[in-house]
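so my prof wants the structure for this chain in the C-alpha cells format not the other one, which i didnt know existed until like an hour ago. anyway here's the sequence
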Amino acid sequence: MRYEGTVYRPPSEANSLLIQATIGCPHNKCTFCDMYKGTRFRLRPVNEIKADLWMARDYYGPWVKSLFLPDGNTIIMKTDDLVQIFEFARTLFPRLERITVYGAARFVDKKSLEDLKRLREAGLKRIHMGMETGDDVTLERVRKGTTSEQIIRAGTKVREAGIELSEYYLVGVGGLERTVEHARESARVLSAISPEFIRLRTLVPVPNTPLWEEYREGRFQLLSPHQALEEIRLLLQELNADGSWVVSDHISNYWNITGQLPHDREAMLAEIDRALTIPEEHFRPANLYHL
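here's what i got, hopefully its the right format
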C-alpha cells in the first residue's frame, strides 16, 4: 500500500484497512483544522487504488473485515468509480463487512438518493460526516462551507439510502459567546436526522490555524472543562434523536459520556453532574498546546 502525507482516520476505524482514495481535502478552509494544510487536493486514479487493494490482499490475505478510504471527503469521487472500487474490494476480501468514508454535508448533498443507494448496494456501510455544529452563525464563522439546512438534507438522504451515519459534534467550537446557541441548534439539526452515531469531540485550538490566532488574540474564548460539560448537558437535554448513540471516543474530551437515546439520557446527564463536582484543576488543560 502506498500513502502520501499524514493519513487520518476516525478512532472507530482503528482496525480497518486504510487505502487512500483521495489526497487532502477539497474544502480545506475550516478555521479550526490543520489536517491537510499544504496538501493540494486530488483524486487518485481508480487503477492505483485497485493496485493498493491488491497489495493489501497479498499482505493480509482475504481476511480483511473493515475498509476505510481516506483522505478527506472521499465521497466526492464519481459514483461509478466508487462502486467499481467497492465491488473490487469485496471480490478481494470476501469477508469484508464494512466499507466507510469521510463525507461532509456539502459533498454528500451533491449525490442523488439513487447514487447513495447504489453505493450502499456496492458495500458502503457508513459515512463519517463532520457536522461540528448546527448553528449557522458558527458554521459561517469557522468557514465550514455548509448550512444547517444542507446538513439536514444530506444526513436524511444518507439515512434514507440505508447507510449508517456518524455525525461529529465539536464541543466548544462556538466559543463561550455562542455555547448555548451551538448546543441548541446542533440538537435541532441532529434531531431532524437521528444519525446512528453522534460522536463528541472537544475543541482544542491548533497552532497556525485561523482559530488559534483568534484565541491567542483574545477574540475567541475557549470553554473551561466545566463549561464544556455544561454544553454537552444542554445538547443531551435538547436532543430528540431516538436510537442515536452518543459516543465520546476521543482523547480531546474531558469525560466519557456514552449511551443511547432516549434510554440512557438520564444516566448520561447524571454522569455529567458527577463530573461537574470534580474541581476543574483535575481535568486536562483547556489548551493542550500550552503544556
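also thought this was worth mentioning. Residues 73 and 103 are 4 Å apart (CA to CA).
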